[in-house]
Amino acid sequence: MIKPNPAVTDLPLLSYEINAALPEVPENSVIYKCNRTSVHLSVKMDLWETGLRLDPEFLYLGSCPSSHVNEALAFFHFQYSFKECRFARLVRDVKIFPLKPGVGIWRKLVLKSKDCRTQRLTPARVTGSGLLSASSGLMFRGTFMNEDFSGPSDLSAFLLGSQIPIEFAVQQFFHQPLRLFVDECIAADAAELGSSFRNYTVIANHGCLLDSKFANSRFLPRHAPDVLRLSLQAFEFAGINTDLYFYLYL
């Protein structure tokens, strides 16, 4: 049935709508073949066998036009690999949009769904071995931190008995992942350990926090293998008013 479109009644006859069901596509009008890498689809020029040929200018498989035309057998051919045309191995609802010659009206044709399946590929295990090596240095650091360890502290003096947040870390560069330990830590009253008059062992025996026996000092839970945090209670050497220096073995 043909009826006028009320929204465009002032336009010519070509703007009328076609509200009619398209005829069924004969089985022999669409032929397809698939293998593991490509698909070959053949579409009959006279798709409905009504004497009206499809216009190849508006005929696409995905984003690809027909690859070649067989005038003798009157078929359009689409032969492409699965990497082309932006389609996957499972193809459904192939859409063809022909333009009827001589009439400026689009008609939409939807072919029957066709499943293009291939055999499932079986993955193969390939064994091998290799050697990966790199050479670089390691950079260790010990830093006085803010109370919440959000960043380095600007303080250089601490009240006696207060907690000093200290973070030890190693910059690994190209090295394999490391787990950091503090084997030894000694506090002294001089910049050179050998010239100090007083010293105090904070950590010894491969990481034993000796100061925790006498003060409120403790290691904090790790948040990364290459970082170690310590909460050290501030102390002083009796009778000596000088800076303290820490010597570490990381």
TrEMBL record:
It comes from the Eukaryota. Coiled coil: none annotated. GO terms for molecular function: acrosin binding. GO terms for biological process: binding of sperm to zona pellucida; egg coat formation; positive regulation of acrosome reaction. Keywords: Disulfide bond. The keyword Acetylation does not apply. Residues 33-250 form the ZP domain. One of its GO terms (cellular component) is extracellular matrix. InterPro entries: ZP-C, ZP-C_dom, ZP_dom. This is Zona pellucida sperm-binding protein 3. The gene is ZP3.
